[in-house]
Amino acid sequence: MTDDTVRQAREERVIPDLAPRLLQLVRGLADELRPGAAFARRLGLDHALERDYGLDSLSRAELFLRIERDLGVALGETALSEAETPRDLLRLLVAAPAHASSASAPASPGDSCETSEAEIDYPPDSISTLVDVLDWHAEHHGDRVLITLHSEGGAASHLTYARLRIDALAVAAGLIDKGYGVGDAVAIMLPTGSEFFAAFYGAQYAGCIPVPLYPPARLSQLEDHLRRIAGILRNAEARVLITVGQAKPLAHLLRAQIGSLRAVATVSDLGLPGGQIARPVLAADATAFLQYTSGSTGDPKGVVLSHGNLLANVRVMSRAARVSSADTFVSWLPLYHDLGLIGACIASLYVGYRLALMSPLAFLAKPSRWLWAIHRHRATVSAAPNFAYDLCVNKVPDAELEGLDLSSWRLAFNGAEPISAGTVERFAARFERYGFRRETMFTVYGLAESVLGVTFPPLAREPLIDRVNRTALMRDGVAKRAAPNDEHALGVVSCGVPLPGHEVRVVNAAAHELPERAQGRIQFRGPSATRGYYKNPSANAALFEGDWLNTGDLGYFAGGELYLTGRAKDIIVRRGANIHPAEFEVAVANLRGVRKGGVAVFPAMDSHTGTERLVVLAEVRTTDAEERRQITESITQLAVDQLGMPPDDVVLAPPRSVLKTSSGKIRRATCRELYEQGALSRTQRPPWWQLVRFIARAAAAQVRRATWGGVHVAWACWVWLIFAIAGLGAWITTMILPGVARRRHAARAWARVAIAAAGIDVRVEGLERLPRSTAVLVANHASYLDSILLTAALPPRFGYAAKRELAETAFVGPALRRLGVVFVERFDAAGGVEDTGALEVRARAGEPLVVFPEGTFRRAPGLLPFKLGAFMVAAHTGAPIIPVALMGTRSLLRAGEWLPRRSEIVIEIGAPICSANHDWNAALVLRDAARRAILARLLEPDTDMRLESASAFAS
C-alpha cells in the first residue's frame, strides 16, 4: 500500500470527526473578533481565514493555541504562514503525529448540526456560475422551497430547488436539440411565473445568453409593444424568443425584421423532460445575461453581466445586509428589472432565503396587497422603488390596513429611482402604528452597470436626510447645509457607503475628484462592474473613463456617505422603468392640436410633497377650454398606453414655450427649472433673450469654477514644493544628527515648518491627555500625510510603527530606521507575530508608540477593521491605549490622488483606555473601546459593522 493510499484512508477516517470541531474553534474565534455580527456560522472549510473569517496574524496565533489546547495538536510556524483556509488546517492536523488520540474524540452534542457544511447558508466562494449555485442547492437541499408564486387570483404554488433544476435542464435540452448553444442570445418575454425561471436558467445551462424583456401590459397592444422591442432584439442578435402562447402569432412577424431571429416558442414547445445534454463548461467571465434598459428603441443598451459580476455583487450585498436562509423576501417587482431579477430572485437562489413572488399588476391595482403579503409571510426583507412607498402612503385607505402587522420587516430596500425625503418620512410616520420601524427603511443606490448594488447605508440606522441650501446646490453645485429656519431647504437622502471591494467617487467635467459636499458626476469601479454594453461602441465610449465607469448620475459625498441629487442624462427613471423622453415627445407631437416639435417631457420636483413628478409640456394654439381638456386626456391616455403610467402633470402652453438650443434640441433641464419655479404659465420672453440669459448664467458659473480650479492647482503645486524642500531638509538632518531624540526633534520641526508654510489649517485638541509614561497611541489612517501631521502635533518622544515595505525604499528607508521606526510585516503571518514582539519590547522599555491599526488606508471613506497588534502590546505591557481621531486628512490628500485640496484638519486625542487584565480578551476589549472612541468623533462610517453606536470621547 502506497503512502498516498495510507494518507487518503486516514483522512477519510479522521476528517468527518475533526472537521466540526475545527470549524467550531474557527467560528468561535471569529465571533469573538466581531461580536454581534453572527456571520461566521455561514462560513465553512473553504473560506479564507483572513478575508472571510477576519483572522489576522495574531488572531491565527491565538487559533493555533486553542487548537493545541482543545485538539491536542501543535502546529508549527510553517502552518501559521501557509494555511489559508480551515481545510488547509484540517489537512495539517490529519498529518500531525499527535493527532490520532484527539481526532477520535466525539463532538459535543449539537456540534454536528451547527457546523455541518450542508447547513451553510451561502455556497462556497469557489462556485463561479449561477448554474453551479443552482446545482449546489439542489444537491444539498433540493426539496427546500425556493419560491412561492402567487397568482392574480391568490392561489399559491411552490418551486423547489430540485424542481427548478429539472425544468431548467428540460429547456436547456430543447435549446441544444434545436441547435442553439454557447453565446446565442435567447430573448425571454414572460410574465412572473415558474416558466420564466425555467427559461432563464435553462438558457444558461445550454450556454446561451438570456435577454429578459418586459411583457406587454395588455395583449390588445401586443403589436405595438413588439415593434418597440424590435430594437433590443436586433441589438442582442437574438436567435430565439421565448414567450406566451398568445403572443406567438404576432411575434413571428418580428422574424422579417430581425435577421438573427430563428424561432418564437413557448417553454412547453422547447422543453424536453429527461433529455440528456452535454453541458458546456462555463467560466466566471462568461456572460450570464444582458440587462437592457426598458423601452429603448433608438439606441438600446444591453449591459453585459458575467457570472463573476453577478456573484460578486450578490455576495457582497448579502453579507452587507446580513441576509441568510432564515430570511423571507416578498417581491412584486418585474423580472425584467434588475431590482426584481437580481435583488430578489438571483439573490434568493444564492443565499437560500424563501422568496414570495406576486404579480406587478396585482400590486399596481391594489398596493395594500404588497403589505399584506409581508404580513402573511412574516417577511423580513422586501424592496421597491420610491414610488411604491409613495403609493402606499397616498393610495391605501385605512380600512384596508386594519389588523396589518409589519413588525417582522427588517429591511425595506428603497432604490432604483430617486429617493424622496418626504416619502421616506411619510411612510415611516404612517406605518409606525402597524409595526414598521424607521430604521427598517434601507435607502440604497445601484445601477445595472454594476449588476445592482453600489452603496448601502449602515444597518439598523434611521434614514439620514441632509438638508441643503437649494440655491447653492442648483447654482454653484455645493451642498451647503441649510439654515434651521430655511423653509426652501432641499432634503437629500443618504444612499450609504460603497459596498466592500467597490469604489465610488464624484468628479467634475475634467474627471478630477471633488471634495466633500461638492456636486459632480458619480463614477464607480469594482468586481461587479460590467465590461460594457453589448455591441454598442458609442455608448461604451461614454461609459468608461479609464478604469472608472460613469453612472450618468449627479451627487456628492458628505460624512463619507453618498447623496444623489439628479441625473446627468436625459433618461427619466420612473416606477423602476427607464423612460426616454424623445420617443414619447414625438408621439405626443402627433396628437391633434399639439404643435409639432413643441413637446418636452421631463422629471420635476414637487415643492409641496418633495416627490419627483413626470411632466409633459405641450405647445397648443387653442384657448378653448373643451379642446384643451380633450388634448390633456389624449396625452394622459397615450402615456398610459406607451409608458404604462399617466403623467403627474400635463402643462398646455402657448407656442415657443418649449425652449430649444440653436440647433433645435430641446432644453429639458431649463424647462424643468422653469416648471419648478412656476414660471411656465407666465408670458415668456423672446427665445433669443432667454437664450442670452441662460448663456450668461452658464458662463458666470464656468468662470467661477475655472477660477477656483486654477487657485486649487496653484495651491497644490505650492504645497508639493514646500513639502519637497522640508522633506529634503528633514532627510539631511536625520542622516547627520547623532541620537534618535535629536533626530525626532528635527523631524518634528521640519514637519511644523512645512505645514505652516503650506497654509494647512491644523487644530490639535487633547494634548493634555497624553500620559508622561509609556502608551500606545492608535489613530485612524486616511491619507499619505497622516504620519507627517502626527509628527508635527505629538511630542518627539513617540516612536512609530510602519509597514515593512518602506524599509526597502532607497531614500525613505534609511531615514526611518535612524528615527527608530519599527517595521511590521503585513502579509506574512509568522513575521507579523514576530514584529508585534518587537513593539512589545519597545513598550516595556518605556517608549510611547504610534500605530495605525487599520494597517493601510483607501480612498473611500470609512474606518477599516483594526488589526490586533497594538492592542496585544498594550494588554501584555499594561500600557494605556490613546485613541486619536484624524479628521479632514482624507480630503486633504486622498489615496490615488496627487493634488492636495484645502481641508480643515482636526487631530483629537482621546482619554487613555486601560485594562487590568493582560490576556487575549483584554486586547479585544481595548480594541473595541478605542474603535468606539474614534468613531464617536470621526465623521466617517464604520466599515467593520460590528460595534454598537459609538459613545462620546471621554473627557
Structure description:
By secondary structure, the chain is an alpha/beta fold. The protein folds into five domains: 3-119; 130-365, Rossmann fold (3-Layer(aba) Sandwich); 465-567, Luciferase, Domain 3 (Luciferase, domain 3); 580-684, GMP Synthetase, Chain A, domain 3 (2-Layer Sandwich); 716-937, Glycerol-3-phosphate (1)-acyltransferase (3-Layer(aba) Sandwich), CATH 3.40.1130. Helices cover 40% and strands 18% of the residues. It is built from 31 helices and 35 strands. The strands form nine sheets. It has a seven-stranded mixed β-sheet, with helices on both faces. A seven-stranded mixed β-sheet has the order 29-35-34-30-33-31-32, sandwiched between helices. Helix 17 (386-394) crosses helix 18. The longest helix has 50 residues, at 687-736. The N and C termini lie far apart (71 Å). Residues 3-13, 98-120, 294-298 and 945-955 have low confidence and may be disordered.
Give the domain tally.
Answer: 5
Parts with pLDDT < 50 across at least 5 consecutive residues = 3-13, 98-120, 294-298, 945-955
Number of E-state strands: 35
CATH class of the largest domain: Alpha Beta
The CATH superfamily name of the largest domain is ANL, N-terminal domain
> What Rg is obtained from the alpha carbons, in whole angstroms?
31 Å
CATH architecture of the largest domain: 3-Layer(aba) Sandwich
Q: Helical proportion?
A: 40-55%
> How much of the sequence is in beta strands?
15-25%
Largest sheet: 7 strands, mixed
The coarse silhouette is globular
Chain-averaged pLDDT: 83
CATH fold descriptor of the largest domain:
Rossmann fold
Helix vs. strand class: alpha/beta
